[in-house]
Amino acid sequence: MTTLALAVLGRGLVDPAEPVLRADDEALLRGRAAFETTRVYAGKPFRLDDHLTRLSISAARMDLPKPDEDAFRALVAEALPGIEDASLRLVWTPGSSEGGAPVGFAIFGAIPAGHEPLRARGMKAITLPIGVPYELRAKAPWILGGVKSTSYAANMAAIAEAERHGADDAIFLAEDEIVLEGPKTNVWWRSGSTLFTPSLETGILAGITREFVLEAAPALGYEIAEGVYTRSQLAAADEAFTSSSVRELMPIVQLDGSPIGDGRPGPAAAVLQQALRRAAAEN
């Protein structure tokens, strides 16, 4: 990621090359920190308030001090001038393991150039089992289901595994091949005029772009079904796609080497992508 700007609570804008965290910050030592990522459109972060609310929820789930949401808003506003289209990541750490103060920062990055070509051709995905019942994943406080934590090594390993198989992304499966989510995304598929997506009871992240799809789809002629679904139901869909803040709506055209639908990006992903961009322009 090319860094466009970096701002730190209590310091304001800083050179991206300057140190921000101590070597004994628990974010580095134990991966114990919360984060959020949204996209900046025409100089405006999309649904920033929703992301800040979720940052506070993740912090509470990890027993971190509550972040000052107003201070983060002011920090983002300070760094925004001159930035039009970018990713924005907010990070909140507990600070030093020796009792230092929490650290918060906002980092703006360039949007990868490969997103639009990938959207045009559609993604290849593989499924990866995690061997945990979805009920446990959703309820066990030590698993942190649905939390945006910087403990992201397993997620990145899943993406690397997908790439080793010639795919672009991965989809996690709970025990009994229950569909969960991607390493960075929520998962959707269409059968007829119904859009299916795993429910929050499976322990998935309550994605902000996922929430947008839930809101926007009915007005576009699609019914929504949230529930507990299997890989075979996803594989038999007419089309599939993922949702996330930076990649937005991304079609899936192949699952574990077999085409989904006719093997091309489908209409629901396209119309929802257009609706998302319209909403962002009105943000």
Break the fold down into its secondary structure elements and pairings.
Layout: E1 3-8, E2 12-14, H1 26-29, E3 34-41, E4 44-45, H2 48-61, H3 69-79, E5 86-93, E6 103-109, H4 115-121, E7 123-129, H5 134-139, H6 153-164, E8 169-174, E9 178-179, E10 186-191, E11 194-198, H7 208-216, E12 223-227, H8 231-235, E13 239-244, E14 248-255, E15 258-259, H9 267-282
Parallel strand pairs: 7-8, 7-14, 11-12
Antiparallel strand pairs: 1-2, 1-6, 3-4, 3-5, 5-6, 8-9, 10-11, 10-13, 13-14, 14-15
Key descriptive features of the protein:
30% helix; six-stranded antiparallel sheet; alpha+beta; 283 residues; D-amino Acid Aminotransferase, Chain A, domain 2; D-amino Acid Aminotransferase, Chain A, domain 1; single chain
Task: Summarize the structure in words.
This protein has 283 residues and is an alpha+beta fold. It has 2 domains: 3-109, 2-Layer Sandwich (D-amino Acid Aminotransferase, Chain A, domain 1), CATH 3.30.470.10; 115-282, D-amino Acid Aminotransferase, subunit A, domain 2 (D-amino Acid Aminotransferase, Chain A, domain 2). It has helices spanning 26-29, 48-61, 69-79, 115-121, 134-139, 153-164, 208-216, 231-235, 267-282; strands at residues 3-8, 12-14, 34-41, 44-45, 86-93, 103-109, 123-129, 169-174, 178-179, 186-191, 194-198, 223-227, 239-244, 248-255, 258-259. The strands form 2 sheets. Strands 7, 8, 9, 10, 11, 12, 13, 14 and 15 form a 9-stranded mixed beta sheet that branches. The protein has a 6-stranded antiparallel beta sheet with strand order 2-1-6-5-3-4. Strand 11, helix 7 and strand 12 form a beta-alpha-beta unit. The radius of gyration is 19 Å and the shape is globular. It starts with a strand and ends with a helix. The mean pLDDT is 96.
